[in-house]
């Protein structure tokens, strides 16, 4: 594994590798952070996806963020940003922000909806042909220049179209794209069968907890029975899912909903669990100019001038 960044944070050291592996080391009894290692950062409330379970309430006429915030200059090299929306491609300053991050040693990752990167299809002589989506071309360029390190793709259930994103070009860039890609599924929205359509194809998988918030609240009220069935099937078959993907990870909400602690020994849990929300992570909404412990927290604060000031407030909560 190639070392991407190494830095000191509070009373411990961090090594971050190119494949996403992170190692923390300390000589003390616990890890005490001075600044966030990971920040979930929203740059757009605009999106044409119309997902009925969207907890961000993103819409076609949603606002986009600017990047004229003083705190950005206080971000430390090695800090990871999970840049999302809305549709990140709707923010015209995204490319400029990614270049800025790379120049300052900040590790930028982006989250996109599958429909915004799906390869385009056309029929010719009775056969289906594909050509590269323009957004995929942009991602190839960002990865090649080291401006993007990870790409989260929100799965829409169409496994054939997802596979085509990585197979319509038999070249180096498509291969690198898949190495950097993590497929996002939502506990309850996606069924066990949806997930297993992607099994044994060398995909990395991230299972997100179901967020009962904004449009997600309405969707749950209207589809509670099917959501509960899907969640129970994933709960019952979690071992099968883990065995079928190159990497399987979870956000803290999914860890709680699926009781992931049950499948680990105490030693394994201490080694792999990355900490509670707000211990090493935080959420920033650049559209509204707010920060919080995570994206579902209703306890929001106005952005301050340094990341350390904001992180102290988050940790105190």
Poorly predicted runs of 5 or more residues: none
Which geometry do the CA atoms define?
Answer: globular
Q: What is the H-and-E element order?
A: EEEEEHEEEHEHHEHEHHEHHEEEH
CATH class category of the largest domain: Alpha Beta
Overview features:
317 residues, alpha/beta, TIM Barrel, 10-stranded mixed sheet, 3-stranded antiparallel sheet, 30% helix
In short:
With 317 residues, the protein is an alpha/beta fold. It is 30% helix and 23% strand. The protein contains ten helices and 15 strands.
Describe the protein's architecture and organization:
The protein has 317 residues and is of the alpha/beta class. The protein folds into 2 domains: 32 residues, no CATH class; 284 residues, TIM Barrel (Alpha-Beta Barrel), CATH 3.20.20. Helix content is 30%, strand content 23%. The protein has 10 helices and 15 strands. Helix 2 crosses helix 4. The protein starts with a strand and ends with a helix. The mean pLDDT is 94.
Task: Give the topology.
Blueprint: E1 3-9, E2 12-17, E3 22-25, E4 38-42, E5 80-84, H1 94-103, E6 107-113, E7 120-124, E8 127-131, H2 134-144, E9 150-154, H3 159-167, H4 172-180, E10 181-186, H5 192-196, E11 204-208, H6 215-236, H7 238-243, E12 247-250, H8 252-257, H9 266-272, E13 281-285, E14 290-292, E15 301-302, H10 307-316
Helix pairs in contact: 2-4
